[in-house]
Write a structure and sequence with these properties.
four-stranded mixed β-sheet; globular; 391 residues
Length: 391
């Protein structure tokens, strides 16, 4: 007697069930106060209704594949996927890509979209990734265009919507005009030349002042140069030794504002706790933190203020700027805004930067670790080891 082969039955609604469960988890964990697009963008009418539609289609089709019953990109499964998949991390995205062909294709589209713009449309211009070495084609992190408290850091953030249908994060308003309706003294001084560049004397001082919350002007004020986001063309390139690096994608004149160093503001205690974790991860594999400690000093040389900025998990494009032992081509400027408690660290071009040139600055001169991370800056005065100090 010949036995019939046992055919494993698969649940054809499993991908949709997974999406629904992910939707619930994202809805619970979406605590972002900084993103323009929060969990309301996942406003699916009802995942149960969608599943019911698929079941009804199955009955009517009498065995035909459900996905073929819908026109291109109109399948409820694809519609749910396009709303939910942008919220997933790369490992989650890779796992769900194995559930069915439709979600696999949506995952590939989202991966491609992510490589087009690291800033998630928060900046004035897209900042693309270029990786000709290996996979993945982009570096995953959460984006913030300005400093934020660690408690305000988003748990998840959408990135890589495959359709421009209103669920995409609205682009940051381009406020590069020099019109000003403010009559404060700072506006008049900075707005006269209309260029928005720093001169050599200002860069040597390493500190500047801008209008802030206590002024009556808006972001279109000429004295808010560093508060309007990235205005120059940049790109993030994967290199064999350095890893991800930030490059100029246009000629950047000397004195031009490039970007701010954004991330989570930490207490000194939390910064030290995280640095211990990062050091342990670094010693066990390829992990690089982006925790930066900024110290403001009095003329006597004593530090009077310390700001801890961690861009490891949540940050902006400045997290990709590498060190150079010769000082690099960027100057770090502490920017104080009137009415703001803490200064911000901003980068300006210390010289004319050619298109296709890497952007670098000095991480410092102190090297407390004799066996620290190897430096690949390639300058003639390279120490061979990256700067390090006690957090």
């Amino acid at each position: 007697m010949t036995r019939k082969p046992v055919v494993a039955r698969t649940n054809k609604y499993l991908p949709l069930q997974i999406l629904f469960r992910l939707y619930i988890e994202i809805k619970k964990g979406c605590l972002s106060k900084t993103t323009c697009c929060n969990c309301r963008s996942l406003n699916i009418s009802s995942s149960f209704e969608v599943m019911q539609q698929l079941k009804e289609k199955k009955k009517k089709s009498q065995g035909e594949e459900d996905e073929n019953q819908f026109p291109n990109n109109h399948s409820p499964l694809i519609q749910c996927g396009e709303l939910i998949l942008p919220w997933l991390t790369p490992p989650e995205l890779a796992c769900i890509a194995f559930t069915c062909k439709a979600l696999s294709q949506t995952s590939k589209t989202i991966t491609l979209q992510r490589s087009f713009d690291a800033s998630r449309s928060f900046e004035n211009r897209p900042i693309p990734f270029h990786n000709a070495l290996n996979y993945p084609p982009y570096a995953y992190f959460l984006y913030t265009p300005s400093l934020l408290l660690a408690s305000e850091s988003p748990q998840r953030q959408p990135w890589g919507f495959s359709r421009s249908d209103g669920s995409r994060i609205p682009p940051r308003k381009n406020l590069l005009k020099w019109e000003c309706g403010c009559d404060c003294e700072g506006c008049e001084q900075e707005g006269e030349d209309g260029r928005g560049f720093l001169d050599l004397e200002e860069m040597e001082l390493g500190i500047m002042s801008e209008c802030g919350p206590s002024c009556g002007c808006g972001l279109d004020c000429g004295n808010r140069l560093t508060q309007r986001g990235v205005s120059v063309k940049l790109k993030i390139v994967r290199e064999e030794k350095k890893g991800w690096s930030l490059y100029a994608d246009q000629l950047i004149p000397q004195g031009q504002f490039v970007c701010e160093y954004s991330g989570e503001l930490l207490t000194t205690e939390e910064a030290r706790r995280r640095q211990q974790i990062y050091d342990d991860l670094t010693s066990h594999g390829q992990f690089y933190s982006a925790l930066l400690v900024v110290r403001e000093h009095l003329p006597s040389g004593k530090a009077c203020l310390r700001v801890n900025i961690d861009a490891t998990r949540t940050g902006n494009v400045a997290r990709f700027i590498n060190h150079s032992c010769d000082g690099g081509n960027l100057s770090t400027i502490l920017v104080r805004s009137s009415g703001a408690l803490l200064p911000r660290l901003c980068f300006f071009a210390s010289k004319d930067i050619r298109e296709g040139e890497e952007l670098t600055f000095s991480y410092g001169e102190t090297r407390v670790k004799s066996k620290g991370l190897q430096c690949f800056c390639g300058s003639s005065c390279c120490f061979g080891i990256l700067p390090s100090e006690h957090t």
